[in-house]
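Entry 12.
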Amino acid sequence: MVRCPTCGIRLRDDLPLCSIHGAPPVVAAPSEPDAAFEVPRPELPGYTVQSLLGLGGFGAAFRAQRTADGVPVAIKVSRADQYSASDRLLLEAEALRAIGAPFVPTVYDVGRLSDGAAYMVMEFVRAPTLAVHLVDAAGPLTPEDFARYAVALVDLVAVAHDKGFVHCDLKPENVFVSSDPGRDGYVAKLFDFGLVRLVGARRVDDTQEEAPEGTPEYMSPEQCEGTNAVDTRSDVYALGVMLYEMATGSPPFWGNAALVQQNHRSRRPPLPSRRVSTPMLAAVEAVILRCLAKDPERRYAHAAALAHELRLALTGPGGAPEITSVRIIAAADAPLESPTSKAKATAPQRERRAVALVFFESAAGVAAVRDAMVLVGGQLAHTAGSQVVIAFGHEVGDNPTRAA
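Predicted 3D structure (tokens):
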């Protein structure tokens, strides 16, 4: 998966072309799995393995067919080069079974191969992922699709939280989304619980010093720190990133993995996106920003609380959608009041704050300039050829001019 380095939208692998910025040099996603290690095809009685579906950090998934009835299945096998991979896969199977259909793929069988590697046989889901829908949208989702998929997504995570699990790796690639609900009435399924934790528990391979785990664009500040303070609020942060991307076309932060993690950890608010002018529901803004609060205490404590507020935000007076053209503003810590009460409140008096602007020319690419300026607290405000405008606000200190 690649993104436009200027606006951060997802681009097609076969045609990396941004509808706004054309075909600039594209950068690979900062969190692609290491494909150097190969997991051999499993030999399981009663199943015929057909192809490799994908290789992740702790296992490989294969498409297979159950010989008894021809039913297509997916078989996930733990990686032998990761010492905790088998334990993780067994915990993942436990989580999937506890959460159950239709929220996650059905688990058919769990066990160990002759070499000791753990395996899991589960339902093969034909629906595309939310990531595919975002690529096809080439920008923000329509208000109708946003409302439909956002509610389904948050509901899935709420079920996982209710069952006592924290996913820890929420991202569009890990959500199957169908345009048409099946017989069970659900349009989405959550999968890839490879980093799952029990609520209140430490991670499987707990050590005194932990390396950050997850996908940089969607990791909470506490995950980026590698601490054990990861709980349901970390999932809520990731949901906020996903909702932001669904609403604007790009996540709050993207690019170099180290820089992305630094942005999540810092008090710096999400970077403004060039694709946030799509008409959206006014109250949704407050919901998203509260999810993206740097301080876990200021986020929703549970996906169920987020689901409740999201439904209220998506419903205008009389139950009809209230579409308002808004811009998703950047804020490190959103207010804790209900978005519905905020939407009804009178507009506060506008605050005047000093902003320092720096004008210069650079032969470097837009992405390189943006990344360099973020490190010193600046935000890319405008570009025109080699001409660049960088803005410094009060988030860098009491004197933006000195910072500039």
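Annotation: The first helix runs from residue 85 to 99. The first strand starts at residue 2 and ends at 3.
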